[in-house]
Amino acid sequence: MARTETVEFTNMCMICDGSRVVVIDRKKRDWPGITFPGGHIEPGESFTDAVIREVQEETGLHIRSPQLCGIKDWCENQCRFVVLLYKTTCFDGELHSSSEGRVWWEDIANLPNLKLSLDMRDMLRVFKEENLSEFFYYQESSAWKYVLKQQNGEDMKYDHDFWSAIDTLVSSGKIVIDRPKGSTHPRFPHIRYDVDYGYIENTTSMDGDGIDVWKGSLSSVNVNAIICTVDLLKRDSEIKLLIGCTEDEMKTVCDFHNDSELMKGILIRREVE
Predict the structure, then answer these.
(1) Is 158's pLDDT higher than 90?
(2) Given the DSSP bridges, would you call strands 101-107 and 175-179 parallel, antiparallel or unpaired?
(3) pLDDT score for 7
(4) What pLDDT sits at residue 270?
(5) What pLDDT band is residue 160 in, cutting at 50, 70 and 90?
């Protein structure tokens, strides 16, 4: 059995300044979207020198003491691709964009509401959670899946297919807001909607109508939470989607569905997380 393989190395760095991080809206056909700066490691170049160089080329910042916090890797076409994941709080210089894409400081808590690159939402966990060390892609029956590897060698199963499927459902339908913020229930005027409420056209929920959605004030069109409800009066249960909701709006929605003894709801946040 061969013990050597062709490997291509790249890197990525999370630059932190308090609650802010540097992001880049990368203009690449094969991996567009918002992510962290980084790039390829040149032949003969040290890993540390490479991430310092790539960050400076893409952002104008000179980072110091980058700490390796994990890797992302996969095998394809007889080659292993390895992305070395770094983070640092030490830097100087002035932030400026490059031909690779626009860069700016972003609150890390707001990242899930941005148009992130594919799998970036889940890869953030390796940057943030000390017990995680590897984001590993693998193929199963021609489908690409991944697992997060913990430092103790155990796998942390994180099935992003559920959230991806919901995003696909939302993007393929039209959101109709029939009860805008500030309006009241058509039959029960004492019920007020403090967040836009509506449904997705051409979908079917458990009650036979379209899937209900709460649309928050953020520009994001990604689902950042769901709420599972039980209505004892109607004797039914439903799942409602929260799209682009702030923390305050999620609390408002949760309070709405727990306003009486006959209706209860549990909020499930989408992890970045």
Answers:
(1) no
(2) unpaired
(3) 96
(4) 81
(5) low
What are 1's two structure tokens? 């059995």
- In angstroms, the CA 180 to CA 158 distance is 35
Q: Angle at the Cα of 204 (from 202 to 208), degrees rounded to 5? A: 125
How far is Cα 73 from Cα 9, in angstroms, rounded to an integer?
A: 9
The CATH number of domain 169-269 is 3.90.80.10: yes
Task: Decide: 71 and 82 in contact? Cβ < 8 Å.
Answer: yes
Mean pLDDT score, 138-144? 80
The domain ranges of the chain are: 6-158, 169-269
Contact 158, 122 (CB under 8 A): yes
Q: Which residue has the higher pLDDT, 29 or 41?
A: 41
Separation of first and last alpha carbons in the chain = 39
Please state, in angstroms and rounded to a whole number, the distance separating the CA atoms of residues 23 and 33.
10
Element (H, E) at 120: helix 120-128
Record: fold of 6-158: Nucleoside Triphosphate Pyrophosphohydrolase (3.90.79)
The SS3 call for residue 149 is: strand
